[in-house]
Amino acid sequence: MPKIPFGPTYKEMLDPGRIAPEIRRKALQAKEDELDPINLFNITWKDEVGEVHKVVLPKELTGTEANIVVLLGKYFPSGSHKVGPAYATLIEGCVDGDILPGEHTILGPSTGNFGIGVSYICNLMGYEAVVIMPDNMSKERYERIQKYGAKLDLTPGTESDVILTLQRTYELKKDPKNRPLAQFELLPNYRFHRYVTGNSAIEAVKGVGNGRIACFTSAPGSAGTIAAGDQIKLAFPEAKVVALEPYECSTLATGGRGQHRIEGIGDKMCTLIHNVNNTDFVALIPDDDAVRGLKVIQEGTKVLEEMGVSPAQALGLKDLFGVSGICNILGAIRMAHYLKLGPDDNVVTIATDGFDRYPSVMEDLERRYLETEDFVVRRWARDIFLKPNTENIFDFRGPEAKEQLYRQKEKDWLPFGYSQEYLDSMKEPEFWEKEFAKIEDYDEKIEKLR
């Protein structure tokens, strides 16, 4: 078998201290040259000294006594943590002999960040790539994908029409030279986030509050990130895992399938890799709350200071979040109120990316609203962040609620050729433990073949 591209193991992505010192040194130096392939070894939640990139939000902003801890994805290569599952899926295909450099073209079905990650990873690892995505996403996403060298294959619609991208991917993969990195259905996405993101979240709360995680909130797109909740529950069995959806597209909660403005989530499906056994609640966030909330954080520094946030903190929050990150934060705040959490309790959530891919979304906000001056932003800040809101939170811990999620998964994936037997096997915890355990084998293969 040919040597595979030189990249990290799962253990090295979780703990870059395991990387050979010379490789680690070169990787850190290469951050200024993002297309240097050694940047594969910068795929981690950790900074240069091994601390998790995170922010604990000021309570003057959140209006809750609980600590809201946000892991920051913008520090990953390419600017989003989605590069992690893109790499994991490609490297597993490499060591399995299914994806060969020079022979195969990579397909990346996405609504944005995963497509950017696929384009970036394929650039570094020497593969041609085609990213299939809806034709009405933010222009910054398309520009970043093309900057990294991938071709775009656009399907009609928006975030809520991702099913069309899946159908297009299934058409293209009929050509034997095409290999899909199918984030919605391939389990490397689950493995990366359960192991790397989940354990990083556990580390992130050390020294914060009681050092435990009471709640983890994540808005599923592919439902990769929410797999971190499986690992969090192992460490903290009392932790509640909460899936967030746009109010306008409440597929998991109520079967709703509307259009919405939160790019990267709310894809009108229960994805194949979503372990619904561990989803305790589903909460709905209005899409414009997330967009206006980003305006508050990004441009409302003066307003935040009036709320009691220190000038340094207010400035420090700029550029850290995108729209889905604000959605995750709002979900964390609402669950802190719903669960009646106190000052020792920690709610952990994720910011998938930063502001750099959303200026056009802010421009659209300006067009849609007659006024966006400080007095309006002040009202938004109060209404969106500070008013305790525990509406539209659905309890999915009971067997009937779980069965509702299983039925949704069957509805979404039986048409793509998955058997009822396979879908039924996902109802058993053993399925997920067996898939997770494959990390050891893949790490062995990566070390041997690279």
CATH class descriptor name of the domain at 54-78 and 193-395: Alpha Beta
Taking strands numbered 1, 2, ... along the chain, how are they ordered across the largest sheet?
Answer: 1-2-10-7-8-9-11
The N- to C-terminal Cα distance equals: 11 Å
What fold name goes in the CATH topology slot of the domain at 54-78 and 193-395? Rossmann fold
- List the secondary-structure elements in sequence, H or E: HHEHEHEHEHEHEHEHEHEHHHHEHHEHHH
Shape-level CATH architecture of the domain at 54-78 and 193-395: 3-Layer(aba) Sandwich
Treating each run of at least 4 consecutive H or I residues as one helix, how many helices?
A: 19
Q: Taking all residues together, what is the mean pLDDT?
A: 94
- Alpha-beta classification: alpha/beta
**Radius of gyration computed on alpha carbons:** 21 Å
What is the share of helical residues? 40-55%
Please give the number of β-strands.
11
- How can the largest sheet be summarized? 7 strands, mixed
- Beta-strand percentage range: 5-15%
Shape: globular
Low-pLDDT stretches: none
Cofactor: pyridoxal 5'-phosphate
Domain Tryptophan synthase beta chain-like PALP: 73-353
Organism: Acididesulfobacillus acetoxydans
Keywords: Pyridoxal phosphate
Question: How would you describe the overall organization of this protein?
Answer:
The chain is α/β, with parallel strands linked by helices and 450 residues long. It has a domain at 54-78 and 193-395: Rossmann fold (3-Layer(aba) Sandwich). Helix content is 44%, strand content 12%. The protein is built from 19 helices and 11 strands. The chain has a 7-stranded mixed sheet with strand order 1-2-10-7-8-9-11. The longest helix is centred in the last third of the chain and has 21 residues, at 429-449.
